[in-house]
Amino acid sequence: MAILEHPSLGKIECVRSLRTRSIRLMVRSDGSLRLTYPAFSTRARAIAFAESRTEWIERTRQRIAQRVTNYPTITREELEGLRREARLYIPATLDRLAHEHGLSYTSLRISSAHTRWGSCSSRNGISISLFIMLLPPHLREFILLHELCHTLHHNHSATFHTLLNTLVEGNEELYNRELKGYKIPRIV
Q1: What are phi and psi for residue 127, nearest 5 degrees?
Q2: 15 with 3: CB under 8 angstroms?
């Protein structure tokens, strides 16, 4: 691996790989490039490939910059406050919902995950992002019910959606649309 500063493209991480069969170019969230190329190729050829994709690189950097500026942010202090709230709210609410609907789970993990609101393991362990505390109460419960439904259906099959929709009184589609309007914040 080598990191070089290209005069017009900026920072490029060049990675020669035995596994890849073609040149791959990726724009990272900070705007830098990762260029992976096969062992039978040369770095010069890979850089020439990147240079031929200048327009695509610029469009992608603009999209990333737009996405980053639209993201909400949270400070470390606010994060700790959310963590305290989550430790009180999530276990009590998850237990209540499980009891009300005759569902059960094996364990609960509260994390600061940034990629998803929650997940359920094959052993029915539920993991919930503390960032659900930034959502309105009905969407928090929706996420918890979603994960509880996965304790019975470890997929997104029709039976899973039927169960979830029943538990949220026919509002699954509405809540999913509403949830898409929220983003997990970046920590600053």
Answers
A1: -120, 130
A2: no
The shares of helix, strand and coil residues in the chain, as percent rounded to the nearest 5, are 45, 20, 30
pLDDT in tens, 31-68: 899 999 999 999 999 999 999 999 999 999 988 777 65
Angle at 104 between CA 100 and CA 108, to 5 degrees: 110
Q: Going from the N-terminus, what domains does the chain have, and what CATH number goes with each?
A: 2-69 (no CATH), 73-187 (3.30.2010.10)
87 in Cβ contact with 110 (< 8 Å): yes
The span from the CA of 81 to the CA of 60, in Å, is: 35
CB–CB of 75/185 below 8 Å? no
Spatial neighbors of 145 by CB under 8 A, at least 6 apart, are: 97, 101, 164, 167, 168
